[in-house]
Write a structure and sequence with these properties.
Length: about 280
Amino acid sequence: MGDFLDVVGDWTEIKLRIVQEYSKAYAMILHKHRQLKFSYIDAFAGAGSVILKDTRAEKAGSSISVLNIEPKFDYYHFIDINHARAERLRQLTAERNDVFVYEGDCNKILIEEIFPRCRFEDYCRALCLFDPYELNPSWEIVETAGKMRSIELFMNFMIMDANRNILWANPNAVRPEQIGRMNAFWGDESWKEAAYESRRGLFGDMIEKKTNDAIIHAYGKRLKEKASFRYVPDPIPMKNKKGVPIYYLFFASHNEAGNRIAKSIFKKYKTKGLGYGS
């Protein structure tokens, strides 16, 4: 099938279920307000399917699985930077006139082509999924979505990428290009205050890294205070089989009903006894 299909762990299956369940509830609510046009946006859409790590079985990915939800969204916008993946999505959706496939950097495409079609004042709404494998999207995208008031989002905070490459015990050893990535993701250098604290030690002041929970809490606070999302429930941690967090799945919205539904879904999967979440 090609090397462009992602091989994913169990946590991806859980995330897909969460997104599917919320997407169906979202579509049912918006479908009742026919003056509104609503879109589904997958900013890292992939090739339409994934390979399960344990069984090597092929399974529909987030983009294709949402196409089967009833009632349907009015429009579907799928983005991938990889040509082979984007081309496969085009082939899989060739008979659909409500699906638009874009090839390139989602940070550029969202601002220039998709978000202008989702403006609140034009009676448009959108549900957007950011499902990258590294720190992405840029803060500009997240803040723009929040201030538009018409967009709800699910987003991975890739804490494993951050811990491996940026949030080291010795911050002075981090390469400048990695710091630049974190600045783009966070929006400025305030992540340093969220991630580190100074403590008095035996040999003077010492820099100490804070916990994952402290960093994630600070980002959630930023989604509210800086990006202006009204509702940001506690994210759900997605862990590997060793119990190590791969990423934290955030939800952000301006709608009380959406917040209530997302919190209920998160709670269900945190308590399913699957070993993911806490």
